[in-house]
TrEMBL record:
One of its GO terms (molecular function) is ATP binding. Belongs to the ABC transporter superfamily. Macrolide exporter (TC 3.A.1.122) family. Keywords: ATP-binding, Cell inner membrane, Cell membrane, Membrane, Nucleotide-binding, Transport. This is Macrolide ABC transporter ATP-binding protein. Residues 5-234 form the ABC transporter domain. GO terms for cellular component: membrane protein complex; plasma membrane. InterPro entries: AAA+_ATPase, ABC_transporter-like_ATP-bd, ABC_transporter-like_CS, ABC_transpr_LolD-like, MacB-like_ATP-bd, P-loop_NTPase. It comes from Cypionkella aquatica.
Length: 235
């Protein structure tokens, strides 16, 4: 079976000559549809660069990035934007919600860009909020929600757009321990429903919720291994 996400000798260099930084230095990896993958590594290891390339926010300097067999680095800007809009959902450490918009309106936002009719996008957004346990908070703005609830809104926003892949960048970084584990249990449940999840984290107990761990060191993929079933959180 062809991988959903594949890197073939991916390199990403910044600067030239003595100032050149090799953020990624010949990375090969593949992620199958339906996997839950955690990415770890120290600062400057390349993990965030890899996530940015997967999310079509950056391009390789050399090598190939394939999504469903399509060479993404060869797509023009408009087609890359379409891939982001229709296939990828993003969840960030800082939630990235619009402060003056309600939870429902925040979830609707990507559907506006898709050109969806108002009634359809409201129904889709309400269903996504219900799925993350926030049906009763649809008309609250972010200031009226806890950090955990704001992150649930961000996850609902990704769900509403029917994303095939959720890219989660330190999704628990601004949350306390209890809220962190609630968010991870939610991501696990979504993964069991068939959504592929790729998550960057620096916390081992958070990475333990994933099925597979990728570790980056100095721009290279140094470890690729399953998380042990006996220690996998919430499994």
């Amino acid at each position: 079976m062809a991988a959903l996400i594949q890197f073939a000798d991916v390199q990403r260099h910044y600067g030239k000559g003595e100032a050149e930084v090799r953020a990624l230095d010949g990375v090969d990896l593949s992620i199958q549809a339906g996997e839950f993958v955690a990415i770890m590594g120290p600062s400057g290891s390349g993990k965030s660069t890899a996530m940015n390339i997967i999310g079509c926010l950056d391009r390789p300097s050399a090598g190939k990035y394939l999504f469903q067999g399509v060479e993404v680095q060869d797509l023009d800007q408009d087609r890359r934007a379409l891939l982001r809009r229709h296939c990828l959902g993003f969840v960030f450490q800082g939630f990235n919600l619009l402060a003056r918009q309600s939870a429902l309106e925040n979830v609707e936002l990507p559907l506006i860009y898709k050109g969806m009719a108002k009634s359809d996008r409201v129904a889709r957004a309400q269903a996504a909020l219900e799925k993350v346990g926030l049906a009763g908070r649809a008309h609250h703005d972010p200031s009226q929600l806890s950090g955990g609830q704001q992150q649930r809104v961000a996850i609902a926003r990704a769900l509403a757009s029917d994303a095939m892949v959720i890219l989660a960048d330190e999704p628990t970084g601004n949350l306390d321990s209890q809220r962190s584990h609630e968010i991870m249990q939610l991501l696990q449940a979504l993964n069991r429903d068939g959504i592929t999840i790729v998550m960057v984290t620096h916390e081992e107990d958070i990475a333990a919720y994933a099925q597979r761990l990728l570790v980056f060191t100095d721009g290279k993929l140094s470890h690729d291994q399953p998380t042990p079933p006996l220690t996998r959180q919430g499994a």
